[in-house]
């Protein structure tokens, strides 16, 4: 058996025999159980694993096998502090989050505001301007469709006019 992956940078297909992948028993101070190691060997992700680093910092992440590194990796974009993970779990139970006080309520509000690029159903939220340049109706439709939108005469950080291409 082998692990097969698509390289994130080059889009090339790479593979490695399963026997050449190192799955550690411990990451930082966190023990990886036999069941979790078996899941990783089977090519499955281990979701919402609480990892404690050697310096004592804790975070929740998803683990999976990485062909390029020949080992286990943290899935990009899934790292959360334990406090953030707890507020996400209690989001559905509003009476519970209200009883926990203002700090958790503020954290929950921050979590809800974080993703403003998509609608609740996961579709791309239309935007009407970028860097002070307004979109035409056609550009708005193209952006929502996932196409690249060309914006001309956008002022960059140095104050020069530039052409920008924006794609969701």
TrEMBL record:
It holds the Pfam family DUF3945. Residues 24-76, 131-163 form the DUF3945 domain. Residues 72-127 are annotated as: Disordered. Residues 81-107 have a biased composition (Polar residues). This is DUF3945 domain-containing protein. It comes from Phocaeicola vulgatus (Bacteroides vulgatus).
């Amino acid at each position: 058996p082998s692990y097969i992956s698509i390289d994130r940078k080059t889009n090339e297909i790479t593979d490695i025999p399963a026997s050449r992948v190192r799955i550690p028993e411990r990451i930082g101070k966190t023990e990886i159980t036999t069941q979790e190691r078996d899941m990783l060997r089977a090519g499955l992700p281990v979701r919402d694993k609480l990892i404690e680093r050697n310096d004592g910092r804790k975070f929740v992440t998803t683990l999976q096998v990485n062909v390029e590194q020949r080992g286990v990796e943290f899935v990009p974009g899934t790292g959360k502090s334990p406090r953030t993970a707890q507020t996400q779990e209690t989001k559905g139970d509003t009476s519970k989050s209200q009883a926990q006080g203002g700090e958790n309520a503020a954290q929950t509000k921050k979590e809800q505001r974080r993703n403003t690029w998509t609608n609740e159903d996961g579709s791309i939220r239309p935007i009407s301007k970028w860097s002070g340049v307004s979109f035409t109706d056609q550009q708005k439709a193209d952006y929502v469709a996932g196409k690249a939108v060309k914006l001309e005469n956008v002022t960059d950080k140095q104050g020069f006019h530039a052409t920008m291409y924006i794609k969701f």
